[in-house]
Amino acid sequence: MHRSVKIYLLSAALVFIMSVSAWSATVKDPQIPEAALKAAAAAKARAVKKPVADVKPQEPRDRAKIADKSDYCIDCHRTKTPGIFEEWVLSGHARLGIGCNDCHGAYQSDKDSFLHSGRFYIRTVVSPARCGRCHKQTIRGFGNTAHAKALTNLEGMKSDDPRYPLIEPYKKSGFSECRACHGSRIEIGKDRRPTAATWPNSGAGRINPDKSPGNCAMCHGRHRFSAASARQPEACLNCHDGRMYPEGEIYARSLHGLAYRDKSSRHNLKRPYFYCDATENTAPTCALCHLNGAGLGLLTRHDPAWRLSHNLAHPEALSREAKGEPRTRMRAVCEQCHAAAVAKRFLAAADAELERYQEAVVEPELARFKKLLKKKKGKQRQVVLTDYADFLARTKAYRLNLYMGHPGRTER
Ligand code: HEC
Ligand code: HEC
Ligand code: HEC
Ligand code: HEC
Ligand code: HEC
Ligand code: HEC
Ligand code: HEC
Ligand code: HEC
């Protein structure tokens, strides 16, 4: 191993030891009696099934050669791109000796590879398939999640979908207005680099040069690639916020969002497995409800649909297949903090109101708009479309409020 790699590993280990000792310092909060802490720890040991480790360090094809290459990258990039270098030093990857070349290295024969600094074939875009070489558990099924399909879902939307009239105008441009969040189809130019029109792009369902869909960095950032950064609400608000996408505001205005802000100084998003407990994590974040793997046997899931019983974004609020199971999983999340009966009551009330609302309010209006849109042409149709978009956004917000916010709220 090169001397410089050893130094980075040593300093990374130091940072790690320091953060572990800071963590144990917060656990020993003097206001909490020792006995209570012990009881909590014992209860957690019983309740929490330790998630199985997702990753095993993969044996690189030629360890010495790859370590050597990354050493060259590091020597130069620590001054050329110090921000990237420092983020990487702080990552779990650096701690394990996983270097630049493990993610960016390429063969000359790869069509998106280019000769870099006269010596190495590399690529800039790192696809989920690349991460998946080591993160085998995470990549399984990832391509079928709504996130990875965020662009192809738009491209493939059927003309009988009630949302079709609204997305149709964007089809011609290949949804270029939507690519910031839904993703672009990355194209490789004559210089074997991504074209300026299609990359940089951090959309959820981007199609990578190797054809794999999706983007791991959209939640994990780069190059620290920590679980902690993805656990903060901000990792989702990047896309899940705004007039058409009300879930960010709904969360922020809910008692959960309020509690998160109120207690944020105590929150420890770095805590292994991100347990909910009264000393450190007392308010749920988006990731805790939708993806987190700690507690009552729940494993980290990279498919947010795994705990969803309905498709609330769809105007008809279709129920998802395997009804029952997703609800049990979501309730297991609530039960980490609430009395089981209370969470059950809340969700049962939401289900009942959803059914009433869809039948009494949404269905008749959907039918009315469908007729109108068929009849009207030109400018008049444009006016109807604007009303229709507003109607869909308003009713989606109402549904989301039932489950995540203040039931019964439409607009403030
Ligand atoms: C001798 C210095 C040097 C070495 C060695 C080096 N780089 Fe770079 N790299 C640079 C500079 C400078 C840039 C910015 C180039 C520019 O702005 O045109 C860069 C750019 C990059 C980019 C972005 C390229 C783009 O145009 O999209 C990536 C990715 C990258 N380097 C990765 C690596 C990896 C991986 C290695 C090791 C295999 C490496 N570099 C080795 C100096 C170096
Ligand atoms: C765990 C995988 C991983 C490792 C290790 C890694 N990178 Fe990256 N890097 C990425 C990802 C992901 C992107 C974002 C590109 C994309 O959109 O896919 C990126 C982007 C870049 C870029 C272009 C973006 C920019 O802001 O300029 C440069 C330059 C770069 N990396 C250099 C490095 C260097 C130098 C190292 C080693 C110190 C390194 N990378 C290690 C995954 C990695
Ligand atoms: C700010 C990020 C962002 C942009 C820009 C964006 N979307 Fe979305 N889109 C989302 C998110 C987040 C969801 C899923 C959550 C939801 O539906 O509330 C979504 C879901 C959708 C859905 C399915 C759910 C629904 O509400 O009907 C459609 C259709 C859609 N987007 C169309 C578009 C079109 C067309 C564009 C471009 C004109 C676009 N989006 C631009 C973030 C975005
Ligand atoms: C060469 C193998 C390898 C590649 C390629 C790789 N990883 Fe990792 N990754 C690991 C290992 C091993 C760990 C465990 C590190 C630890 O325990 O701290 C890890 C840890 C992580 C973690 C958890 C860090 C934490 O806070 O606990 C995240 C997130 C992650 N990787 C994301 C990615 C992403 C995203 C990519 C692609 C851009 C990627 N990895 C590419 C091997 C790899
Ligand atoms: C880069 C943008 C982006 C980011 C960041 C993002 N999402 Fe999404 N999300 C989307 C889009 C776009 C969709 C809709 C895709 C579709 O239905 O075609 C979506 C869909 C969803 C859905 C509905 C899933 C389904 O199967 O219908 C949930 C739940 C969700 N996201 C939660 C999250 C959480 C939690 C985070 C943060 C940890 C997050 N998202 C981060 C863009 C994003
Ligand atoms: C929608 C946001 C989002 C996307 C996209 C995403 N992650 Fe994650 N990831 C998270 C969150 C949130 C956690 C923390 C989960 C927890 O608390 O249990 C996490 C945890 C992890 C971990 C550590 C926990 C474990 O399961 O071992 C790894 C490794 C990881 N992600 C890799 C990846 C890779 C590889 C990709 C791309 C294929 C990816 N992530 C895409 C949000 C995301
Ligand atoms: C207290 C737990 C909790 C928190 C916190 C939370 N959600 Fe949800 N979310 C839910 C529940 C419950 C549902 C509805 C489940 C169902 O389908 O029965 C839901 C539904 C959704 C949907 C609708 C998916 C669909 O069916 O189309 C999206 C999108 C979403 N959440 C995103 C987010 C985002 C983004 C955040 C953070 C800003 C967040 N959630 C915070 C529990 C939560
Ligand atoms: C990490 C802990 C945590 C989780 C997980 C959690 N909550 Fe909460 N919940 C809170 C906190 C904190 C409050 C704010 C009130 C308080 O201080 O007790 C709250 C408040 C509520 C309220 C009262 C709202 C009102 O208007 O009176 C309801 C209902 C609720 N949560 C439902 C749920 C549901 C349903 C789930 C699962 C989908 C869930 N919670 C998951 C911590 C949590």
The beta-strand count equals 2
Structural class: mainly alpha
**Separate helix tally:** 20
Please mark out the parts with pLDDT under 50 across 5 or more consecutive residues, or reply none.
1-7, 12-33, 46-66
The Rg value, from CA coordinates, equals 24 Å
Q: Provide the domain count.
A: 3
**Major pleated sheet:** 2 strands, antiparallel
Strand order of the largest sheet: 1-2
State the share of residues found in helices, binned by percent: 40-55%
Q: Helix and strand string, N-terminal first?
A: HHHHHHEEHHHHHHHHHHHHHH
N-to-C CA distance? 61 Å
State the shape: globular
Multimeric state of these chains? single chain
Which percent range describes the beta-strand content? under 5%
What does this structure look like?
- By secondary structure, the protein is mainly alpha-helical.
- The protein folds into three domains: 1-12 and 59-123, no CATH class; 136-220, no CATH class; 227-404, no CATH class.
- It contains 20 helices and two strands.
- It starts with a helix and ends in an 8-residue tail after the last helix.
- Residues 1-7, 12-33 and 46-66 have low confidence and may be disordered.
